[in-house]
Amino acid sequence: xxxxxxxxxxxxxxxxxxxxxIISGVGLLGATAVRFGTNSAIYAVVSNSxxxxxxxxxxxxxxxxxxxxxxxxxxxxxxxxxAPVLNSLVPGQGPTSxxxxxxxxxxxxxxxxxxxxxxxxxxxxxxxxxxxxxxxxxxxxxxxxxxxxxxxxxxxxxxxxxxAPVLNSLVPGQGPTSxxxxxxxxxxxxx
Length: 191
Hints:
This protein folds into two domains: 4-81, Immunoglobulin-like (Sandwich); 85-162, Immunoglobulins (Immunoglobulin-like, Sandwich). 0% of the residues lie in helices and 57% in strands. It has no helices and 22 strands. Strands 2, 4, 5, 8, 9 and 10 form a six-stranded mixed sheet that branches. A hairpin with a 2-residue loop joins strand 6 (42-47) and strand 7 (50-54).
Protein backbone atom coordinates (compact mmCIF):
# COMPACT_ATOMS: atom_id res chain seq x y z
CA UNK A 1 0.00 0.00 0.00
CA UNK A 2 1.48 3.44 -0.92
CA UNK A 3 2.07 6.05 1.79
CA UNK A 4 -0.76 8.41 2.69
CA UNK A 5 -0.07 11.99 3.74
CA UNK A 6 -2.61 13.92 5.81
CA UNK A 7 -1.05 17.30 6.69
CA UNK A 8 1.71 19.74 5.77
CA UNK A 9 2.89 22.12 8.46
CA UNK A 10 3.24 24.82 7.31
CA UNK A 11 1.34 24.51 4.04
CA UNK A 12 2.95 27.65 2.63
CA UNK A 13 6.33 29.29 2.51
CA UNK A 14 8.69 31.61 0.67
CA UNK A 15 9.23 31.31 -3.08
CA UNK A 16 12.98 30.99 -2.42
CA UNK A 17 12.30 27.78 -0.48
CA UNK A 18 14.47 26.72 2.43
CA UNK A 19 11.80 26.45 5.11
CA UNK A 20 11.14 23.26 7.03
CA UNK A 21 7.85 21.46 6.34
CA ILE A 22 6.59 18.63 8.56
CA ILE A 23 4.75 16.02 6.48
CA SER A 24 2.41 13.83 8.55
CA GLY A 25 0.64 10.66 7.47
CA VAL A 26 1.06 6.87 7.49
CA GLY A 27 3.47 4.53 5.73
CA LEU A 28 6.23 7.13 5.54
CA LEU A 29 9.05 5.03 7.06
CA GLY A 30 10.35 3.70 3.75
CA ALA A 31 10.22 7.00 1.85
CA THR A 32 12.62 7.19 -1.09
CA ALA A 33 11.64 10.64 -2.39
CA VAL A 34 9.72 13.78 -1.42
CA ARG A 35 8.65 16.07 -4.24
CA PHE A 36 7.14 19.54 -4.32
CA GLY A 37 5.63 19.39 -7.78
CA THR A 38 8.51 18.16 -9.96
CA ASN A 39 11.21 19.44 -7.58
CA SER A 40 12.92 17.04 -5.21
CA ALA A 41 13.22 18.06 -1.58
CA ILE A 42 15.88 17.30 0.99
CA TYR A 43 14.16 15.29 3.71
CA ALA A 44 14.60 13.17 6.81
CA VAL A 45 12.21 10.39 7.83
CA VAL A 46 11.39 10.93 11.50
CA SER A 47 8.96 8.02 11.94
CA ASN A 48 6.34 6.02 10.10
CA SER A 49 4.02 9.02 10.50
CA UNK A 50 6.37 12.00 10.05
CA UNK A 51 8.92 13.41 7.60
CA UNK A 52 10.88 16.67 7.91
CA UNK A 53 11.42 18.20 4.45
CA UNK A 54 13.12 21.38 3.27
CA UNK A 55 10.96 23.06 0.64
CA UNK A 56 12.79 23.67 -2.64
CA UNK A 57 12.26 26.98 -4.50
CA UNK A 58 9.00 27.33 -6.42
CA UNK A 59 6.07 29.53 -7.42
CA UNK A 60 2.32 29.39 -6.95
CA UNK A 61 0.67 26.21 -5.73
CA UNK A 62 2.18 22.78 -6.07
CA UNK A 63 1.42 19.24 -4.93
CA UNK A 64 3.59 17.56 -2.30
CA UNK A 65 3.96 13.79 -2.63
CA UNK A 66 5.99 11.08 -0.90
CA UNK A 67 7.31 8.08 -2.82
CA UNK A 68 8.25 4.74 -1.28
CA UNK A 69 8.87 1.24 -2.69
CA UNK A 70 5.12 0.61 -2.33
CA UNK A 71 4.09 3.59 -4.50
CA UNK A 72 3.47 7.32 -4.44
CA UNK A 73 1.20 9.03 -1.94
CA UNK A 74 -1.74 11.30 -2.49
CA UNK A 75 -0.81 14.96 -3.02
CA UNK A 76 -1.39 17.88 -0.67
CA UNK A 77 -1.26 21.51 -1.79
CA UNK A 78 1.71 23.67 -0.79
CA UNK A 79 1.60 27.38 -1.67
CA UNK A 80 4.68 29.45 -2.47
CA UNK A 81 4.24 33.02 -1.25
CA UNK A 82 6.32 35.81 -2.80
CA ALA A 83 8.31 38.01 -0.43
CA PRO A 84 6.73 41.38 0.40
CA VAL A 85 8.07 44.53 -1.28
CA LEU A 86 8.31 47.79 0.65
CA ASN A 87 7.98 50.96 -1.49
CA SER A 88 7.63 53.84 0.97
CA LEU A 89 7.53 55.00 4.62
CA VAL A 90 5.60 58.12 5.62
CA PRO A 91 7.06 59.81 7.56
CA GLY A 92 10.63 58.59 7.03
CA GLN A 93 11.83 60.01 10.31
CA GLY A 94 10.66 60.54 13.88
CA PRO A 95 11.69 61.05 17.49
CA THR A 96 14.19 58.79 19.26
CA SER A 97 11.48 58.08 21.85
CA UNK A 98 9.37 56.41 19.13
CA UNK A 99 5.60 56.35 19.39
CA UNK A 100 4.80 58.06 16.10
CA UNK A 101 2.64 56.44 13.44
CA UNK A 102 4.39 55.37 10.22
CA UNK A 103 2.46 54.25 7.12
CA UNK A 104 4.25 51.59 5.05
CA UNK A 105 3.17 51.00 1.46
CA UNK A 106 4.16 48.21 -0.91
CA UNK A 107 2.89 44.78 -1.91
CA UNK A 108 2.43 41.35 -0.35
CA UNK A 109 1.64 42.46 3.21
CA UNK A 110 -1.21 40.01 3.84
CA UNK A 111 -0.24 37.64 6.64
CA UNK A 112 2.54 39.88 7.96
CA UNK A 113 3.95 38.54 11.19
CA UNK A 114 6.53 41.22 11.97
CA UNK A 115 7.52 44.80 11.21
CA UNK A 116 11.00 45.75 12.38
CA UNK A 117 12.79 49.07 12.74
CA UNK A 118 16.35 47.78 12.74
CA UNK A 119 16.32 44.96 15.31
CA UNK A 120 13.34 46.39 17.23
CA UNK A 121 9.85 45.00 16.67
CA UNK A 122 7.02 47.45 16.06
CA UNK A 123 3.34 47.24 16.94
CA UNK A 124 1.46 47.29 13.63
CA UNK A 125 -1.84 46.80 11.83
CA UNK A 126 -2.14 45.33 8.34
CA UNK A 127 -4.65 47.64 6.63
CA UNK A 128 -4.63 45.62 3.40
CA UNK A 129 -2.19 43.81 1.10
CA UNK A 130 -0.52 47.13 0.16
CA UNK A 131 -0.53 49.13 3.41
CA UNK A 132 0.55 48.70 7.03
CA UNK A 133 0.31 51.23 9.85
CA UNK A 134 3.13 50.80 12.39
CA UNK A 135 4.08 52.56 15.62
CA UNK A 136 7.80 53.32 15.58
CA UNK A 137 9.63 51.82 18.58
CA UNK A 138 12.32 53.86 20.36
CA UNK A 139 15.68 53.96 18.58
CA UNK A 140 18.57 56.03 17.30
CA UNK A 141 20.36 56.79 14.05
CA UNK A 142 19.17 55.43 10.71
CA UNK A 143 17.73 51.91 10.60
CA UNK A 144 16.18 49.67 7.92
CA UNK A 145 12.43 49.05 8.22
CA UNK A 146 11.33 45.59 7.03
CA UNK A 147 8.12 43.55 6.82
CA UNK A 148 8.13 39.76 7.33
CA UNK A 149 5.39 37.46 5.98
CA UNK A 150 5.23 33.73 5.25
CA UNK A 151 6.88 34.68 1.93
CA UNK A 152 9.99 36.04 3.62
CA UNK A 153 11.35 39.44 4.59
CA UNK A 154 11.00 42.53 2.43
CA UNK A 155 13.67 44.89 1.25
CA UNK A 156 14.57 47.52 3.84
CA UNK A 157 13.82 51.24 3.65
CA UNK A 158 15.65 53.75 5.84
CA UNK A 159 13.94 55.36 8.82
CA UNK A 160 15.90 58.05 10.68
CA UNK A 161 15.54 58.75 14.38
CA UNK A 162 15.90 62.46 15.02
CA UNK A 163 16.97 63.55 18.52
CA ALA A 164 14.90 66.28 20.21
CA PRO A 165 16.36 69.77 19.90
CA VAL A 166 18.36 71.19 22.83
CA LEU A 167 18.03 74.88 23.74
CA ASN A 168 21.16 76.36 25.36
CA SER A 169 20.47 80.08 25.51
CA LEU A 170 18.15 83.02 24.72
CA VAL A 171 19.61 86.45 24.03
CA PRO A 172 18.14 88.65 25.36
CA GLY A 173 16.39 86.71 28.09
CA GLN A 174 13.82 89.43 28.66
CA GLY A 175 11.85 92.06 26.75
CA PRO A 176 8.94 94.45 26.75
CA THR A 177 5.37 93.33 27.55
CA SER A 178 4.32 94.55 24.12
CA UNK A 179 6.68 92.00 22.49
CA UNK A 180 8.23 92.71 19.12
CA UNK A 181 11.86 92.39 20.14
CA UNK A 182 14.24 90.00 18.40
CA UNK A 183 15.44 87.01 20.46
CA UNK A 184 18.29 84.74 19.31
CA UNK A 185 17.99 81.10 20.39
CA UNK A 186 21.10 78.88 20.34
CA UNK A 187 21.39 75.13 20.81
CA UNK A 188 21.42 71.96 18.71
CA UNK A 189 19.02 70.00 16.52
CA UNK A 190 17.02 72.96 15.18
CA UNK A 191 16.92 71.70 11.56
